[in-house]
Write a structure and sequence with these properties.
This protein is mostly helical. It has a domain of 109 residues. It contains 4 helices and 6 strands; from the N terminus they run E-E-H-E-E-H-H-E-E-H. Strands 1-2 form a two-stranded antiparallel sheet. The chain is elongated and about 85 Å long. The two termini are 44 Å apart. The model has no long low-confidence stretch (mean pLDDT 81).
């Protein structure tokens, strides 16, 4: 006979603006959730900032800025074209590495595969309403996590009080 244990994960519904609905799961009783999420946010911020120190920069609209020394792509020499192509390949690799880190960090923070749900409609780097989609998600989920953690803590305090009060004088 197997022992059945509950890890306390709750369903958190997400509705995308295209009408699609899905669910992610997290445990508001997990005391390390907030610290893992903040750690993930820091790692993601550092990785995104690293992109902007390369020869290509992410612009506010999510597009990639070309190097300023190359204005006319059609009139590039073979050598200039090769340099541009090498930089483009490096940028693509850096973006993919960063995307993988974002997925890994969020999944680790929530102890659940949420990245496949959250990013099924767009990249973490998609700019939606003036901010990266990853930033929009973290800003949207943080108050919800806080709300559930407060409720969980309040429920736990009530349960503890029930047992502790009988020993108070």
């Amino acid at each position: 006979m197997a022992m059945k244990l509950s890890v306390g994960k709750i369903a958190f519904p997400i509705e995308f603006d295209n009408g699609d609905k899905d669910t992610i799961y997290f445990n508001p009783n997990d005391s390390d959730l907030a610290s893992r999420l903040m750690s993930a946010k820091d790692k993601i911020d550092k990785k995104i900032n690293a992109i902007n120190t390369e020869d290509f920069n992410l612009l506010n609209d999510g597009s990639v800025e070309m190097p300023k020394d190359i204005n006319d792509v059609e009139n590039l020499s073979n050598e200039q074209h090769e340099v541009l192509m090498k930089k483009a390949e490096q940028m693509i690799k850096l973006m993919q590495d960063t995307k993988n880190i974002i997925f890994e960090e969020l999944d680790r923070a929530f102890d659940s595969n949420i990245s496949s749900v959250v990013f099924k409609h767009c990249s973490p780097f998609a700019v939606v309403n003036g901010e990266y989609f990853i930033t929009q998600f973290i800003n949207a989920i943080t108050p919800e996590i806080q709300k559930h953690i407060k409720k969980s803590n309040s429920d736990m305090d009530r349960k503890m009080a029930k047992y502790v009060n009988k020993y108070r004088r």
